[in-house]
């Protein structure tokens, strides 16, 4: 068996790593800063590797394009405003879908990756060498994050700092357990193979439990999504069928008050339902 060459850290190069472009500070308590931080996190976890400013530009272009198309077809300011809003939100919805799909793939790759990491540790390699070896063999999207951590190790970044961003970049909290395990093992020693084997078994059992949980709550989640989508869909249907429908509704004080109350209750219900769904799907 060929001898393995230990990694030589070059600490001098670790200072040239560029920070991720962000809009939020992550430390503010205002609603605007929290919204900016949420958007930064979404752009980081969806895997697009696009600057947040570019995605905002895509949102603006989508809103202008769809709003202009609706205005050309109907020449109605209300439907134009609604079309502009939908066009602006579409890239964000696509990013949410991409993040959910990416997190699902990462969770499926975790158990095989941990098993391979345990096999690499059996050969007597260090934690850094095992991580570098597994990063090369792991496919996307988990492999990209592991290779990023491996490149940081090559540039002299300590293991704790190289793995610290894994949970934040992916949104998978199981990677926080992996990072903590590797850092503690490097600092205190111990049987790395046994720890990784047990962690792989735990991740596999957790995936089975989450699958059963999603299957058991599929009907409830579908009902919740239907409750969110149905009221706006009905409004869009009547507005497209009769462009004057919404204007006639808003022409009376009773219609304006009823519509405003319905919008407020809809927003409250959407936030409530989304928080419940997020709590049930958190991994």
TrEMBL record:
InterPro entries per record: T2SS_GspF_dom, T2SS_GspF_sf
Question: What GO cellular component is one of the record's annotations?
Answer: plasma membrane
Q: Which UniProt keywords apply?
A: Cell membrane, Membrane, Transmembrane, Transmembrane helix
- Residues covered by the Type II secretion system protein GspF domain: 114-239
State the compartments where it is located. Cell membrane
Where is this protein chiefly located?
A: membrane
Protein origin, superkingdom: Bacteria
Q: How does it sit in the membrane?
A: Multi-pass membrane protein
Kindly list the residue ranges recorded as spanning the membrane. 50-71, 77-98, 218-238, 258-277
Name under which the protein is recorded? Pilus assembly protein TadB
């Amino acid at each position: 068996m060929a001898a393995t060459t230990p990694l030589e850290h070059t600490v001098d190069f670790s200072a040239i790593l560029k920070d991720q472009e962000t809009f939020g500070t992550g430390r503010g308590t205002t609603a605007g800063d929290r919204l900016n931080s949420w958007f930064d996190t979404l752009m980081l976890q969806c895997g697009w590797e696009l600057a947040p400013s570019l995605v905002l530009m895509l949102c603006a272009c989508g809103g202008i394009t769809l709003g202009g198309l609706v205005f050309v077809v109907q020449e109605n300011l209300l439907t134009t405003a609604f079309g502009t809003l939908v066009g602006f939100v579409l890239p964000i919805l696509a990013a949410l879908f991409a993040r959910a799909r990416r997190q699902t793939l990462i969770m499926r790759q975790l158990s095989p990756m941990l098993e391979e990491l345990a096999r690499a540790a059996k050969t007597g390699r260090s934690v850094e060498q095992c991580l570098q070896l597994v990063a090369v063999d792991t496919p996307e999207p988990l492999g990209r994050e592991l290779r990023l951590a491996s490149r940081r190790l090559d540039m002299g970044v300590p293991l704790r700092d190289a793995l610290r961003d894994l949970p934040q970049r992916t949104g998978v909290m199981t990677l926080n357990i992996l990072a903590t395990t590797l850092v503690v093992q490097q600092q205190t020693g111990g049987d790395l193979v046994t720890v990784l084997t047990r962690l792989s078994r735990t991740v596999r059992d957790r995936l089975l439990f989450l699958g059963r949980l999603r299957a058991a709550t599929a009907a409830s989640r579908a009902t919740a999504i239907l409750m969110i989508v149905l009221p706006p869909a009905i409004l869009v249907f009547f507005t497209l069928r009769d462009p004057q429908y919404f204007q006639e509704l808003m022409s009376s004080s009773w219609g304006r008050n009823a519509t405003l109350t319905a919008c407020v209750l809809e927003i409250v219900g959407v936030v409530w339902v989304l928080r419940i769904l997020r709590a049930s799907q958190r991994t």
